[in-house]
Amino acid sequence: FDNNLVTGQAQSGLWFGKTDDLWSFGKPQGWGGVWRQDRLAANAVSDPYLMTGFDDKVLHLTAHDTEHPTVFVTIQIDFLGTAGNIPGESWMNYTTVELSGTGYEYVIFPSGFSAHWVRLVTQYPAVLTAYFHYT
Question: How many angstroms separate the CA atoms of 116 and 49, rounded?
Fold first, then answer.
């Protein structure tokens, strides 16, 4: 099977079923990152990351290398679902996280926090990892 390009592999994640069957799997969960040891310039903006549809949300931030003793990462939220793509619609600052040169911080969002999109903005150049965990 390994040489057949059209045969699904065990890790392919293909599922064939009805949409209503999804509810039998339980509540959605997910994780992923906008940065993974990325070298970022000052005022770098991450791609928007989906935030809606999950009850509990945590952001994990790690600074691997910085030019400044402290790095500030601002969490910006889109409550309207436009991801900043409509003129006049802007991102709202939620909070700013302070990281030491090689530090780790996490942010637990309130249960049921209902923003559609989230993105991150750095203040100074740094090598950062930012992962979201949703349940």
Answer: 9
Check residue 16 and give its pLDDT.
79
Compute the distance between CA of residue 135 and CA of residue 43 in angstroms, rounded to an integer. 30
- Quickly count: other Cβ atoms within 10 Å of residue 2's Cβ: 6
> Which backbone phi and psi does 11 adopt, to 5 degrees?
-90, 5
Euclidean distance between CA atoms 57 and 55, whole angstroms: 7
For 38-95, what is each residue's pLDDT tens digit? 999 999 999 999 998 888 999 999 999 888 899 999 999 998 888 777 776 789 999 9
* Cα–Cα dist 36/105, whole Å: 15
Tell the burial category of 27 from Cβ atoms under 10 Å away from its Cβ (0-12, 13-18, 19+).
exposed
